[in-house]
């Protein structure tokens, strides 16, 4: 049975829902900068990030990131519609990225910044705090890379239709 790629949007909705629910719980339970140890090497911490990954571009207005999310979202929806079948790994990857991007865009629209709360650390070294949306984006990017590697191993080049369009 062939699955239409647009049906993968449930994954975006799940990511968006879990991301926003986790942030809502965190904001109501922890004060800003408060740390709650969970496990060795893992804390919950309430942080606000006005920038992109690793706080890059932290002086850019939230509207810039919201606009970028809108452009990426339209591109992903266009891809899902244009390539309706037979690429489940890419469809899953793109819908993970879409859900994560929308989760962070909702934060920016509502709060002007993104809530980050997952803090991995070793000794005194801490990885940049992140959230479920960031995790979904990273997982989606990893799946896209995996798809490229798998295509190379199978000796699959671009689809003949794609070459004709170029």
Number of domains: 1
Determine the structural class based on helices, strands and strand pairing.
alpha+beta
Average pLDDT level: 86
The biggest sheet amounts to:
4 strands, antiparallel
Uncertain regions: pLDDT < 50 for 5+ in a row? none
How many whole angstroms does the radius of gyration measure?
18 Å
Give the topology string: H per helix, E per strand: HEEHHEEHH
Instruction: Count every beta strand, where a strand is a DSSP E run of 2 or more residues.
Output: 4
Distance between the termini: 31 Å
Could you estimate the helical fraction of the residues in percent? 55-70%
Judging from the principal axes of the Cα atoms, what is the shape? globular
Structure characterization notes:
The protein is an alpha+beta fold and 166 residues long. The chain has one domain (5-154). Helix content is 57%, strand content 14%. The protein contains 5 helices and 4 strands; from the N terminus they run H-E-E-H-H-E-E-H-H. It has helices spanning 9-29, 62-82, 88-111, 132-154, 160-165; strands at 35-39, 42-49, 114-122, 125-126. A 4-stranded antiparallel β-sheet has the order 1-2-3-4. Strand 1 (35-39) and strand 2 form a beta hairpin. Helix 3 (88-111) runs antiparallel to helix 4 (132-154).
């Amino acid at each position: 049975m062939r699955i239409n790629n647009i049906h993968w949007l449930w994954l975006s909705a799940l990511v968006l829902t879990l991301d926003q629910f986790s942030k809502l719980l965190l904001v109501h339970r922890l004060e800003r900068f408060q740390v709650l140890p969970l496990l060795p090497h893992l804390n919950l911490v309430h942080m606000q990030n006005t920038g992109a990954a690793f706080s890059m571009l932290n002086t850019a207005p939230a509207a810039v990131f919201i606009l970028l999310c809108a452009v990426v979202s339209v591109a992903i929806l266009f891809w899902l519609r244009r390539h309706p079948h037979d690429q489940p790994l890419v469809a899953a990857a793109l819908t993970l990225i879409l859900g994560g991007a929308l989760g962070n865009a909702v934060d920016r629209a509502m709060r002007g910044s993104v809530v980050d709360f997952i803090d991995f650390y070793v000794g005194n070294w801490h990885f940049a705090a992140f959230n479920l949306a960031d995790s979904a984006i990273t997982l989606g990017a990893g799946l896209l890379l995996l798809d490229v590697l798998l295509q190379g191993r199978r000796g699959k080049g671009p689809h003949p239709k794609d070459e004709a369009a170029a």
